[in-house]
Design brief:
Layout lengths: L9 H13 L33 H17 L9 H17 L2 E5 L12 E6 L3 E11 L9 H21 L5 E8 L7 H9 L2 H6 E7 L10 E2 L8 H9 L5 E2 L9 H6 L4 E5 L8 H7 L23 H19 L11
Parallel strand pairs: 3-4, 3-5, 5-8, 6-7
Antiparallel strand pairs: 1-2, 2-4, 6-8
Helix pairs in contact: 2-3, 2-4, 3-4, 4-10, 7-10
The structure holds zinc ion.
Length: 339
């Protein structure tokens, strides 16, 4: 997540107030999987209503690789360095082997000089006119390896994408993943991507889901635009785990969902928090230490594989899969409807 706080514009303030006034989506009240684990992944490959469980050990294995990449490249994965390019290659090779249509998009305007490309991967099934997009920034700051920020979101998305390919369910809608460059320098990669889309292409994207810092060691459970229609499946999953998620106020305007929001695309996503401090009320309901940062290693050299909340990472990855299945896999009742 980027340090810079963006000025709250009239438009985004109106969106926030509108969501608050509308209150919770009534469909959220129905929690069909309340208190139960998602189905085991041993079921057959036809269309299913239930999402698979994402193996958190595999997500952590991706984090170990991203950490090693940083260590080989001066200790960071900054967008302009080889650590970022190697991160792109790692994700790309995994997706390619799984059957994804992949493109590297060089950021030719608005990015830092020498920044590596965005990586876009689309699962080539489902209605191409109805796209659900899931994204994470793959770059880090110069100060450290960037494992919670944002290896965590990047790795959770990668393993979700690989699980989708492995399960290969019948699709109602198209799923597209984005790993963004140069987020830490001002949300530049995602901004370039959104600007590169035609009006028609933008209209096809029914919702964009962002994942930035989803495994903070002293974190909480935050959802972007928590009461919006786009957020409904994300909230439904965390509600089923009794996590009592809150609005992601700290992250508003500070990650790549902002680029999509500015283009009028509905957005949501998970986050566990950055440099802001946990309140005593939050410590009472989620555990952890009050008056301490959600991520005490935010943008520091100690943001290593030791700086990962494995429980939070697991809950985030499973909720991403839940949302993807609910939105885009056929037979789930949510696939073709706008988010
Ligand atoms: Zn950051």
């Amino acid at each position: 997540m980027v340090i810079r706080r963006f000025t709250v514009t009239g438009v985004s303030l109106a969106v926030t107030l509108g969501a608050a006034l509308l209150g919770a989506d009534p469909t959220v009240a129905a929690t069909p999987q309340a208190g139960t684990a998602p189905r085991p992944s041993a079921a057959s490959g036809a269309a299913h209503a239930a999402a698979p469980d994402i193996d958190v050990a595999k997500v952590q294995a991706h984090l170990t690789e991203l950490h090693a990449i940083a260590q080989r490249n001066g200790g960071n994965r900054r967008s302009t360095g080889q650590g970022y390019r190697d991160s792109v290659a790692y994700v790309k090779n995994k997706l390619k082997a799984a059957g994804y249509a992949i493109s590297e998009q060089p950021c030719t305007s608005g990015c830092s000089s020498g920044a590596g490309p965005n990586l876009i991967a689309e699962w080539p099934q489902g209605d191409a006119g109805t796209v659900y997009m899931f994204g994470s920034h793959l770059d880090g700051v110069g100060a450290g390896p960037g494992i919670n920020d944002n290896g965590s979101g990047s790795a959770a998305l990668l393993e979700t994408a690989l699980t989708l390919a492995r399960e290969n369910p019948a699709m109602a809608a198209r799923v597209r993943f984005g790993w963004w460059t140069d987020e830490e320098q001002g949300l530049n990669g995602s901004d370039f991507y959104v600007r590169s889309l035609s009006r028609t292409e933008r209209a096809r994207i029914k919702a964009y889901y962002n994942f930035d810092m989803v495994a903070s060691t002293n974190g909480g459970y935050f959802i972007n635009h928590v009461d919006s229609a786009a957020a409904a499946p994300m909230k439904e999953y965390w509600d089923s785990l009794k996590l009592q998620p809150e609005e992601n106020t700290e992250g508003a305007g500070r990650s790549d969902d902002y680029s999509f929001e500015q283009a009028g695309i509905p957005t949501s996503g998970y986050a566990m928090g950055a440099g802001a401090r946990k309140t005593s009320a939050q410590a009472a309901k989620w555990g952890g230490t009050a008056y301490r940062s959600y991520d005490p290693c935010y943008h520091q050299s100690c943001d290593t594989t030791a700086n990962i909340n494995a429980t939070g990472l697991n809950r985030s990855a499973d909720g991403i899969a839940y949302t993807l299945w609910k939105r885009a896999v056929s037979g789930t009742g949510g696939g073709a409807s706008a988010g």
